[in-house]
Amino acid sequence: MASSSVIASALILSLVLLLQSANATVVCEELPQDLCTFSISSAGKRCVLESFRRSRVEGVATTEYYCRTSEVLVDRFSDWIETDECVNACGADRAAVGISSDALLDPNFTSKLCSTACYQSCPNVIDLYFNLAAGEGVSLPELCEARRSNPHRSMAELVRSSGLVVPGDVAVASAPSPF
Where does the secretion signal sit in this chain (predicted)? Predict the structure, then answer.
């Protein structure tokens, strides 16, 4: 008899925990630093990791990090904390302060972002970089397709189509295209 009451208690406890987690809300300001980036609040706004420098009495400056709610509204997601598997599969960095389209110029990053493990399984990360790319006038699906067929050319196309300037390539980015 004792074993059936233990099983029943465990099932009830599991059900209570499941219901509590189903009703949980994501508040960016309450997230720990290591879960902030790539999370979305209950209000559907992206969480961002920010930093500030604080001076100590001894005169030594320290950098502190905190999570805050951005003004970026996400249409398709809310109450979302990205999994470590997706962050790793996409080559993303949770410790990044601010997210930028500059990452799209890194061939190692775009290789992981466009991989099947990321592109097909991590819709939140893809949505974020889709919007960042679109803000630069670049289509992420086209970039990923170009990346698969010719990785070096896809980066050149990204730079040429968006007008981004890569350090060391100023003359190339500002000169008329020979094509």
Answer: 1-24
